[in-house]
Every structure is written in structure tokens, then in C-alpha cells.
Design goal:
This protein is of the alpha/beta class. Helices cover 47% and strands 16% of the residues. The protein is built from ten helices and nine strands.
């Protein structure tokens, strides 16, 4: 219960990784503000947290809209008079069809701008209005959910990569500008079993084995990211950590998915002498 007496806001927590982070923070004792655009999904998540013994409530918000974020923080201030933990989990991953990310020469500038707005300005909006409330509460922790796309190239995702790269840079900048009151860190999250799309990728006969080969460990689950978020949110365990990028990706950015060159040359599965 290392987060007892803390109020935590998790954006885009009506499903996927955000839902798991909300559940983990609640299990650690925090009062969790579940937020997203779908009231139906949000209330379902809150019910699940209540059934698990956690304290939680849903407040609707579109983090891409500044007025909506301002209203969200005002409501938290009125109901709880404090905010100690902010998890920026929202990202441009729910954009489909004509608004999908794709190679730059095929990507309309308007779509690039839209994806960048969701990925970057959502964090700007929440931090702008949440940090003063956190300061009045005596300080706190911000955890930004970034991606391996911010540190290695992933085919066909220029806007997403740019948005997460900006998140990494803003993480360092906010840690400098608002320390020591506010600790700000980011999670470099890898490909985890977060939704139906990730499940389809794992089941694909070509992509699935390639994903497994790319990792130095097992494939990830969304609870792995949630555990890391709870660690960074804790002043007890991570009180001396700020401005950092914590990799939660099974070693996928540290590894080239190539066979042992010596083994290939010798035609064996053994490393060279």
C-alpha cells in the first residue's frame, strides 16, 4: 500500500494499458481518477476497481481539448483538494482508416498534425493544469507512457514516433523546470498484450515469431507496464529518480534480431569458441 492517501489521475484509462495502470495504483492504495471519452467504459473500469477493493471514480475528458482538461483538473480539485500522481497514458493509437499513421510520403500533413496533437498536446494540457494542483499538495510524480517507437525506428509510424520522441524530451524538461517538487519520468513501453490489435500481431504467422525473436525475455503484458508505473509513482521507491526513461520492453531495443554470426558461419547452434 505504498500509494495510500495519494490521489492519482490516469488518462485514457478506460481500457488497455491505462486500465491496468489504474488497477495497479488502486491496489497500491491510491484514490484513482479514471479518465477517458467513453463514460460507459469508464464506469465499467471503476466498477471493476471497486470490486477489487480500490477507491476510484470516473471523470470524462478529451485530453486533446484544453478546456476539457481544465474542467477535469478543476473537478479533481473541488472533490479531493489535491493531486499527487499523474499518468499520461493517452496516445494516438486509436486513429484508424484515413487518419491512420503511415510512411511520410503517403501521410497528409493534416493527419500528421492531428496525430502529433493527440500525442503531444494531451500531455501539455494535463501537465499545465495538474502541476499547480500537485504543487499545492506538496509535490508529486508524473509518469509518461512513451514507446519504443521513440528510440528506434518502426516502419510506417512517423507521426507516432515523433509524438513519443517529443514526450521523452518534455519529460526531461519538466523534471528540470519543476524539480524537486515534481518528479517526472517516462516509461519506454514495448509491444505488450494490450488490446485486440496486439493479440492479432502475436497470432500472425510472420509477425508473431519475429516479435518473439526481437525480445530477450518473454513477450510483455500490460501489467508489466502498470507495475513500472506504480514504481515510478512511489516516493518511497523512486524518490531519487526523475528525468529518466525506464525501458519496459523485454530488451527489444537492446537486441538485433539476428542469429549468432559465429553459429551461422559454422552451421551450428553453438556460439563460437
Amino acid at each position: 500500500m505504498r500509494l495510500s492517501d495519494k490521489v492519482a489521475l490516469v488518462t485514457a484509462s478506460t481500457g488497455g494499458i491505462g486500465e491496468s495502470i489504474a488497477a495497479r495504483l488502486g491496489a497500491e492504495g491510491a484514490t484513482v481518477i479514471v479518465s477517458g471519452r467513453s463514460e460507459e467504459k469508464g464506469k465499467h473500469v471503476v466498477q471493476s476497481l471497486h470490486e477489487a477493493g480500490a477507491k476510484a471514480e470516473f471523470i470524462a475528458c478529451d485530453v486533446g481539448n484544453e478546456d476539457s482538461v481544465r474542467a477535469l483538473i478543476d473537478t479533481i480539485s473541488q472533490r479531493h483538494s489535491a493531486l499527487h500522481i499523474l499518468v499520461n497514458n493517452a496516445g494516438p493509437t486509436d486513429v484508424r482508416g484515413d487518419d491512420a499513421d503511415r510512411p511520410l510520403l503517403e501521410l497528409p500533413v493534416s493527419v500528421f498534425e492531428k496525430l502529433l496533437h493527440v500525442g503531444v498536446m494531451s500531455m501539455v494540457h494535463t501537465c499545465k493544469y495538474a502541476i499547480p494542483l500537485m504543487q499545492r499538495a506538496g509535490g508529486g510524480a508524473i509518469v509518461n507512457v512513451s514507446s519504443t517507437a521513440s528510440v528506434v525506428g518502426i516502419a510506417g509510424m512517423p507521426a507516432y514516433a515523433a509524438s513519443k520522441g517529443a514526450m521523452n524530451a518534455l519529460t526531461r524538461q519538466l523534471a528540470v523546470d519543476y524539480g524537486p517538487e515534481i518528479r517526472v519520468n517516462a516509461l519506454i513501453a514495448g509491444q505488450v498484450n494490450a488490446n485486440e490489435r496486439s493479440q492479432r500481431l502475436r497470432a500472425d504467422p510472420v509477425i508473431g515469431p519475429a516479435l518473439q525473436q526481437q525480445h530477450s525475455t518473454r513477450l510483455g503484458e500490460r501489467e508489466d507496464v502498470a507495475a513500472a508505473a506504480a514504481f515510478l509513482a512511489s516516493d518511497v521507491d523512486a524518490g531519487f529518480i526523475t528525468g529518466s526513461l525506464l525501458h519496459v520492453e523485454g530488451g527489444s531495443t537492446a537486441k538485433l534480431a539476428l542469429p549468432n554470426p559465429g553459429s551461422v558461419a559454422r552451421g551450428t547452434g553453438h556460439p563460437p569458441d
